[in-house]
Amino acid sequence: MDKPNDQFYEESSLSRNISILASLICLGLVVYEQLYGNSFSNMVVMLYCAFLLPTVGLTKKIRERYFLYTQEYIIAFRGFTSLMCAVFLMVWLIAFLTYQSPPPFPGQ
After folding, report:
1. Is 55:22 a contact under the CB 8 Å cutoff?
2. Ranges of H-type helices in the chain
3. Please, what's the largest Cα pairwise distance for the chain?
4. Would you say the pTM of this structure is higher than 0.90?
5. Are the beta carbons of 53 and 27 closer than 8 angstroms?
6. Is it the case that residue 3 has pLDDT exceeding 70?
């Protein structure tokens, strides 16, 4: 019996490196938000992480193995989650750069 061609299932190294970088950014944001964040930026980071999971996890190998007949929809879903990750990362950057700490006493 012939061995299946694994090259068909392989992802490009650029895609794998982008996935690793996005995961490291997610980990760094979660650690930073736990130490220094506020409630709004925590929610943005959690949404970024939630949309990152299908973006990183639905690789070509997973699509071929588990979603054989619905690949068009999974590809569109992965594109949507990638876009949402970029949007939430930009929202977090805006919130980080424009954050003003509240005064210690009301009326100051």
Report:
1. yes
2. 13-36, 39-57, 60-66, 71-97
3. 78
4. no
5. no
6. no
